[in-house]
Amino acid sequence: MKKIGKQTILFDNPPTILECASIVGPKEAEGPLCKYFDQTLEDEFWGEKSWEKAESKIIKETVNLVISKSGISNQEIDICFAGDLLNQCISSNFGLRDTNVPFFGVFGACSTFVESMSLSAICSESFANYSLCATSSHFCSAEKQFRFPLELGNQRPQSAQWTVTGSGSAIISKTGQGPYITAITPGKIVDMGIKDANNMGAAMAPAFADTLVTHFLDTGRTPNYYDAIISGDLGYVGKDIVIDIMASQGYNIKSNYNDCGILIFDKNKQDTHSGGSGCGCAATVFSGYLYKQLQEKKIKRLLLIATGALMNSTSSHQGESIPGIAHAISIEI
Amino acid sequence: MKKIGKQTILFDNPPTILECASIVGPKEAEGPLCKYFDQTLEDEFWGEKSWEKAESKIIKETVNLVISKSGISNQEIDICFAGDLLNQCISSNFGLRDTNVPFFGVFGACSTFVESMSLSAICSESFANYSLCATSSHFCSAEKQFRFPLELGNQRPQSAQWTVTGSGSAIISKTGQGPYITAITPGKIVDMGIKDANNMGAAMAPAFADTLVTHFLDTGRTPNYYDAIISGDLGYVGKDIVIDIMASQGYNIKSNYNDCGILIFDKNKQDTHSGGSGCGCAATVFSGYLYKQLQEKKIKRLLLIATGALMNSTSSHQGESIPGIAHAISIEI
Lengths: 333, 333
Description:
Two copies of one chain form a homodimer. By secondary structure, chain A is an alpha/beta fold. The first copy, chain A, has ten helices and 15 strands. Chain A has two domains: 2-7 and 15-173, Stage V sporulation protein AD (Peroxisomal Thiolase, Chain A, domain 1); 180-332, 3-Layer(aba) Sandwich (Peroxisomal Thiolase, Chain A, domain 1). In chain A, 34% of the residues lie in helices and 23% in strands. In chain A, helix 7 links the parallel strand 11 (228-232) and strand 12. The model of chain A has no long low-confidence stretch (mean pLDDT 97).
């Protein structure tokens, strides 16, 4: 692999995304992408005593599923990257403690899935035959931790996003028939001073635009190189901002740009306001829907840019703004 | 680079640890390693209004320092790996938001520094000229988040460790005169059912032994290959357990094994009970003390194995055990 331009890495022998798996919660099962997920849950507990334990079970079973679907064994996996939104990434730590696979924990908030795919791709070209990546999020555990007790029934502002309950996982292989990871553009932290923790889309949009423009400049590509440019997860508010920022930079992305948080829920029938979010959103939309679009050649060139809001509840209470980040991964068949 | 055995990666062109920097708090400044740190603070706030903001400032200034000492510019850094103990790794996110460097957040609890060095080394051999790694911890922010308000003056059990206030940072270069990162052994999550959050040493010791034995089996090396085998941070309780476990596996590590948490504080004069801990412990002991021992050839072959306890306060309240992890990095001159 080699670095080109300011931030982009091109793969000489692009790794293959060998297999994906996804498990989602009941609300996601009522959304427009339902048929693409491997498994849908009837409730948010899945037989566990807490939402945190349920989230661990979701990522655990998603990882078990992707390994089983891929036909390889745990022993063949050379490295694993995983993370989630819970403090100290406990869903991943507890969910993956029985996998018996070398493990690197990663945290990039909602950008974590693309971060883990990026690092898996780097490892696959350099030493690993198979890398595993996985992330999860859970509406109830996230609301409890970041916002208010669900029992309060707090009203959410229209700019708020709905944390996806679900997990996505992928196995990246050194060799294979694609879809191939052909390039990555790891993002820089961008903080434009947004302080509203109920408007993550606005906080993350500048980071998305920074990474996307950098990707275009580094590679010499333009928006129409890609069949689809997908963010994860800016929601409706962030999507509008991003289209405007990109236009101001001379890029028209209106025709082929969409967002995982918009794709996963039905705007009219499901009351999620600005759309979905969470580590599990980009992970499930990619592992469920987008990966199948690539396999069926409905999308031949995908740029997936996952975005993260790098704050916690303490930083917001202390009056801090919300730093954003966005990592891009180019996937082609 | 190539994988050998079960988990170890050998570098064909071992990257150089070009420069290190460390900043520590007032208690660490009273410890036996004081003279090795670049900067020591007079209090835990460093002019900031909260411990969290102070921790962000510590990692920020440590990173600024290592960049300044190295003589390279921010623009030359191809990738950065950083993480810390605070929820959602806010010290790193806020501390590094102005660096303008491609950023991957990592979380491995107290193992994070070696995780970030390992990933930096992988990137350095594959595409990066310069990688940056940094971690931090802060006694007050960690106690507040994981245990009790400091104002309570709670008594700590003898098995408890004292979170180091400090940050360590390193720049890894594709080329150079060493010290060289010659091999890494990423660890697996090991959970032996320890539930006492005041005895992290016991919780992490099995993961340390698992990685160390695997490293020996993968490389064919024995304990006496290394001048020093250093864990970070098992403390006194964990050190004793580890020596016993290794002896039961046929390895005598008594003569050349020590622990960052033991090295950083004076057992008799400083009331830290089982020794130091925290992302900043291994980071400062390596960046301050061990790196200089390598430069001065007092240590020629170092195996640094940082250990992490992958829990949070919610998981302990829900009766969960504490999964441990340990990542090894072999550094030679």
